[in-house]
Amino acid sequence: MSTLTIGIIVVFVLGYAFIAMESLTKINKAAIALLMFVFCWVLYMVDPAPFVQLMHPDFKGTGEQVLSFVNSLITEHLGDTATTLFFLMGAMTIVEIVDQNGGFNWVKNVMHSKTKRSLLWKIAFMTFFLSAILDNLTTSIVMIMILRKLVHDKKDRMIYASLVIIAANSGGAFSPIGDVTTIMLWNAGMITAGGVISEIFIPSLLSMIIPALLLQTALKGNIEYDDMGTDLMGDTVVLEFTAQQRKVIFAIGVGGLCFVPLFHYLTELPPFVGILLVLGILWTVTELFYRHIHRRRGDNIQFSKRVSNLLSRIDMSTILFFLGILMAVACLEEVGVLHELGGGLNSFFEGNHYAVTGIIGVLSSIVDNVPLVAGSMGMYPIQATGDMAVDGIFWQLLAYCAGVGGSILIIGSAAGVVVMGLEKITFGWYMKKISWLAFLGYLCGILSYWVIRTFIFTTPL
């Protein structure tokens, strides 16, 4: 391992350490993530040729050609990162439009619970199954918006929000369209829809239920209904559209979010294109509604809930944090650290798939699970029979571990990062209060999968 590689790893580790100590340093995590991203790539550019030869042996250029190639690599990684960022911005804007126009009020009534514990279970199961239909990122945004209407106590909402992270990641792991990593494995033919649902559903469910059982001990008493009533009254004062128009906005917004996986399947375009399609349609419809209002009431009226105004509410610090983290991880990928780590794990554990995928899952709570899964797919080719066959133990475990393992740390998944930004949950609080619960559920899920594959589904379906 070269000195530059060690330097890049040190910068990455120090960056994560400062992100973890945000509550102590009072430095915004987005600023640290951006510095981490830039410094990693600056070190890479000191002498990029060895890294290019290592990771891209087919490239034979020298001198200026190497620099040009590296710049194209950075642009390619930025493009991959941008797909996540635009998906996030589109989903956040759609949910904000629906929420600001009272679209989630009926959900608030459905989720109405007398006790805090009963609400916890409603939140857990709704998040779990919704994330299997939508993706865990969009589901987390929707559920946090609902939680803000239901729970006004900050400490209680942090507990509910943490469970949303766990349930969203668990729900996405058993569905072929619920998580980016399962989509990758499904599209590559390494798992089938029937296989991953039938075999990973119970482990995923356990990885959500066990933390929920332990978390409910921190919630006692009833929900303060007076606060909820005040919130509902506040909504009725500021709504700008009629009841019928609000129903149309809700149908387009939520229906559009559910349509995105189908759009991706039908067109094979990246999911962010589907999100932007839904946003464009919703934006156009609301503008037509406002045009009608202007004709009826005059052109001098200003509307605070217009989409162009709501765009300013997007939390840019969360977007920039995402950018910094994903681009720093891309640098680790380009210096070969992730590839070497995967190969080393396989050698150290002598092909024990439960140990290898289990460690990959834990690592996915530290670095992005997409390059980890992509690296695993490249290192371990699919085979005709055995554990590496279609729906084999390795691929099923990889789908489970990479998805659920991201819950162990709050920065280990897209759902966690979004909730962290929206609810201002610190890395330290989550690690102290939630990480061990998520890890316990994660291990129980792996154990249940071993039982299923040893005694129930001894061969893939």
UniProtKB/TrEMBL annotation:
Predominant subcellular localization, coarse grouping: membrane
One GO cellular component term noted in the UniProt record for this chain: membrane
InterPro entries for the chain: Cit_transptr-like_dom, NhaD-like
Compartment(s): Membrane
UniProt keyword Nucleotide-binding, yes or no: no
Keywords: Antiport, Ion transport, Membrane, Sodium, Sodium transport, Transmembrane, Transmembrane helix, Transport
Ranges annotated as spanning the membrane: 6-23, 30-46, 119-147, 159-178, 190-215, 248-266, 272-290, 310-330, 397-422, 434-452
Any one GO biological process: sodium ion transport
Record's bilayer topology term: Multi-pass membrane protein
GO molecular function, one term: antiporter activity
Domain Citrate transporter-like: 16-390
One Pfam family per UniProt: CitMHS
Domain of life: Bacteria
Keyword Membrane set for record: yes
Family membership noted in the UniProt record: Belongs to the NhaD Na(+)/H(+) (TC 2.A.62) antiporter family.
PANTHER family the UniProt entry points to: SODIUM/PROTON ANTIPORTER 1-RELATED, SODIUM_PROTON ANTIPORTER 1-RELATED
The protein's name: Citrate transporter-like domain-containing protein
Organism: Prevotella histicola F0411
